[in-house]
Amino acid sequence: MQVVKDPSAIRVGNGESGAAAAQMETIYEKISRFISDNAVVVFTISGCCMCHVVKQLLFGLGVGPTVVELDHDAFGRYIHDFLFQLVADSKQQPVPAVFVGGKFLGGIEAVMACHINGTLVPLLKDAGALWL
Length: 132
Prior knowledge:
Number of helices: 5
Largest sheet: 4 strands, mixed
Strand content: 5-15%
Number of strands: 4
CATH architecture: 3-Layer(aba) Sandwich
Radius of gyration: 15 Å
């Protein structure tokens, strides 16, 4: 499994004015709270085949993830920026992005690796997304 990162640690720091930075800070705090308040969150883009695969795997396991399609969400651009910062040090694409139990699990590679090695279901159970 990929190293867990704390979404609340991500901050805006790209030279924006004080007011704009404060507004972005608030948006990032809301995103972090949203991720923490849901057992499984999947950020996707409609039409993305890898996003579809991740959603189908989770649905097939009996998980009802909270799915946010960034191209249909009013704050999609800001969430996408958040995800880019989250994966900045890796070669990973920002979507799909899967959060389990308030922690960043990763994209398609991390989810599939956890599924194959048998750690995904226990992780989902610990987060309260599965009751079996």
